């Protein structure tokens, strides 16, 4: 049974194998180093943010902490998918900022020998920004696209998300139906009046 909170194993075997969290996006299987993941939670109520970039899904209240959720499908340039009972939010920490990343489903945890990891094929690089990729892993008849979640968002983008979550203190667990209005954060960098948001949307995949 996959646990919501992940216990990271000792790094004593890190030279021989890599422990990965496996998840799905747009019909493809991805893997991330478990050391980048704080926990995995079921999808909960997400409060949308007016005028936010398309890849920003909204805000959640994680045990009293405001966390911005990124739609990883959109961020990687895939077509958006409707959330369902299999959808999960992977909680990661990037440059001391806690961020949620919405994925279609989580398959579990697996150990992959380093010898089973190869460089990313050009075919995959043509669809996904190569800066996000660390290689591909072969697990039996499965091929995992390996991501570095810390690179999926740039430093300026992380700063914007941090500012957004910090300015949304009105979103609290005491509110049964939290909401955000564009006037509640007049200095938000996501305002339509902002001429230079650092978010750059990836083009959607061709189908």
Automatic annotation (TrEMBL):
<dbReference type="GO" id="GO:0007165">
    <property type="term" value="P:signal transduction"/>
</dbReference>
<dbReference type="InterPro" id="IPR002545">
    <property type="entry name" value="CheW-lke_dom"/>
</dbReference>
<keyword id="KW-0418">Kinase</keyword>
<feature type="domain" description="CheW-like">
    <location>
        <begin position="17"/>
        <end position="158"/>
    </location>
</feature>
<dbReference type="InterPro" id="IPR036061">
    <property type="entry name" value="CheW-like_dom_sf"/>
</dbReference>
<protein>
    <submittedName>
        <fullName>Chemotaxis protein CheW</fullName>
    </submittedName>
</protein>
<dbReference type="GO" id="GO:0016301">
    <property type="term" value="F:kinase activity"/>
</dbReference>
<dbReference type="GO" id="GO:0006935">
    <property type="term" value="P:chemotaxis"/>
</dbReference>
<dbReference type="GO" id="GO:0005829">
    <property type="term" value="C:cytosol"/>
</dbReference>
<keyword id="KW-0808">Transferase</keyword>
<feature type="region of interest" description="Disordered">
    <location>
        <begin position="164"/>
        <end position="207"/>
    </location>
</feature>
<feature type="compositionally biased region" description="Low complexity">
    <location>
        <begin position="165"/>
        <end position="198"/>
    </location>
</feature>
<dbReference type="InterPro" id="IPR039315">
    <property type="entry name" value="CheW"/>
</dbReference>
<dbReference type="Pfam" id="PF01584">
    <property type="entry name" value="CheW"/>
</dbReference>
């Amino acid at each position: 049974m996959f646990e919501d909170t992940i216990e990271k194993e000792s790094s004593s075997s890190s030279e021989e194998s890599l422990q990965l969290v496996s998840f799905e996006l747009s019909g493809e299987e991805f893997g991330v180093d478990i050391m980048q993941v704080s926990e995995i939670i079921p999808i909960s109520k997400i409060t949308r943010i007016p005028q936010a970039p398309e890849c920003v899904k909204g805000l959640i209240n994680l045990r009293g902490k405001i966390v911005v959720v990124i739609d990883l499908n959109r961020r990687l340039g895939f077509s958006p998918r409707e959330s369902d009972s299999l959808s999960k939010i992977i909680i990661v920490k990037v440059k001391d900022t806690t961020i949620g990343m919405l994925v279609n489903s989580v398959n579990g945890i697996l150990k992959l020998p380093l010898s089973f990891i190869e460089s990313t094929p050009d075919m995959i690089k043509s669809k996904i920004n190569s800066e996000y990729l660390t290689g591909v892993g072969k697990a039996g008849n499965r091929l995992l696209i390996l991501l570095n979640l810390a690179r999926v968002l740039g430093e300026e983008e992380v700063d914007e998300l941090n500012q957004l979550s910090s300015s949304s203190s009105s979103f609290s667990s005491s509110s049964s139906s939290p909401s955000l209005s564009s006037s509640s954060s007049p200095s938000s960098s996501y305002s339509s009046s902002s001429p230079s948001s650092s978010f750059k949307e990836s083009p959607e995949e061709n189908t």
